[in-house]
Amino acid sequence: MSNSFTSTPTLVDPSRLTATQTIRTTEIAKLADLQNHCFAICGTHNILSQTYDDSCFVQDSTSFVEMSKWYIPMISQSHDELKIRVNAFCGTAGAQVRFTLSFAFSANTYTDTVTITDTSRYGSAFNVATISITNTETEQFAILTLEAKAPTGDEVEVLGVQASWTALASPLSAGKHYIGTDEFVPVGQSRQGADLPLSSRFGVQSLSNIATLRKRGRVLLCWSGVSNASSTSGLSLAANPPIGLGYGDQTNMSSVVALPLGMNEIDGLNITLFLFAVGLSGSNTIVLEIFNHRLTVSTNGWSSFNLQIVGSELSISDEFGLSMFSVGVHTSDNNARNLLSINKLIATNAYISSISIIGV
Amino acid sequence: MLIPTSFNRLPSNEGCHNGQIVMGTTLGQISNGLAQVSNVKALGEAHYQVSHSLYGNNGFGSLIGGTNQVEVLSTYKVDREYNFLYQSTHLSNQLAVLIKYNAYDENTSLTPDLKIVLRDTASNSYSGTILDNGVRFQVGLHLQTNYQDLNARQIFTGCQQIDAPTSASYDFPRPLFVPSGNRGDLLNVQVLTTSVALISVHIYDIYIPEVTP
């Protein structure tokens, strides 16, 4: 009955699954193991990765100030522990960084605060925040915000942030699991043993489980500008980070990622783009071209868009053996006009302060 | 078995209903669908954007926002260390690394250089045990300098399968090797630069197209 699995995926010999072959319990047990493995492990790598060079992400306030926010995928309702590692330092003890995970629809929030221990740049060790989700959250995405505060008379500097969901251990708990509202039913190993019937349910649930697992979010690009940076030093020395997407991000703000061909033809498989807009008023809009889609943002705060694979693979696909695409902000006349630049100052123009692109 | 890279259509549920003959094709498609999820979709990856101070001749002040180009500012023209944390997977046998950068060798006596080392993160330390002594990108061989043109350049370790490296020093560019005992651990991809400004660092598990079941 146990929904157990092995950590390294157990694949099935395809020659055993052809016509005229007897269906052995060995293959069925491996398929069961693999489904449980995929649900527990898949997507537990980095969901947030961002680095800041020197004197960029700086805060001298002695009370918490919100500085960055990202949209991240919830890989399932059962993955309820988020580990966030922060590279930061402060010359004086007492600097803290607070992370809050919030859900747009349930309005629930979960928080953890870490005290920064390093006193110099990459001095000794990073600090880890752990957010545990205690309610049932049915959303596929969540918002992670970062606040920082410094001890009196000093300032804290953040060099990087990384986050990942904690993988589930074997066996999976009994009963249905969910990715968003899509069901995943773990497979009981003892039901797949010798002399037991191969049930119709095994086949139907396996197909349903694969369809559910395909929808699990993968972060393709996740970036937040740094708001409210503050330092006692002048702007030439500190606290002068990028706040919004700018002209130069046409060439820089993108990732080379693998995307599975065939996803356009299957319902429910999308690339989801989240943008956070600041400074829009009246009928103003921001029109941007991202991953071959022209998108119009008309409201402040978060906006989301569903994207599909449009455009050609990169030549580097040959190296990876996968279909690789450049996903992010395009170089185009439209973007050159609409992104922040010396001709489009942040003080008087709306801008995008966060971008997350989550694929499948 | 060959691992499919794309999402193929799954067979109809009806092929699994009571009273139907169980077809080898149906089980084969279930097997392939799962192999795609476990060995392609579940491959680890990390996409680090590296933000820089916008002050300088080729940046913009914070009242303007955004960045025009990334110039190697004077503070980067010395040896620099960066640590990129990577939550590996059980399939992280080897890691490919792709870096966008700017290198600058004018008006400085320093030669641009970039090294990548793989470390563990025991006790959350940046200086954990070295798992792979790593690789080196050198100017003239791999790194391009760009004095006039400040657009991003790109370097890549490639994805060629390698045996566990034995060299005690930096190799020419190749993927980083993760010892079997560290696969699934949080790893530290340490990048050491001289006169190089990092723009983004992308880390990937390498896809293996054929796996023996």
Describe the protein's architecture and organization.
The complex is a heterodimer of chains A (360) and B (213). Chain A is mainly beta. Chain A folds into three domains: 70 residues, no CATH class; 120 residues, Sandwich (Jelly Rolls), CATH 2.60.120.260; 111 residues, no CATH class. Helices cover 13% and strands 34% of the residues of chain A. In chain A, the strands form six sheets. In chain A, strands 1, 2, 4, 7 and 9 form a five-stranded antiparallel sheet that branches. In chain A, strands 3-8-5-6 form a four-stranded antiparallel sheet, with no helix packed on it. In chain A, strand 10 and strand 11 form a beta hairpin. With 213 residues, chain B is mainly β. Chain B has two domains: 42 residues, no CATH class; 162 residues, Jelly Rolls (Sandwich). Chain B contains one helix and nine strands. In chain B, the strands form two sheets. In chain B, strands 1, 3, 6, 7 and 9 form a five-stranded antiparallel sheet that branches. About 4% of the residues of chain B have low confidence.
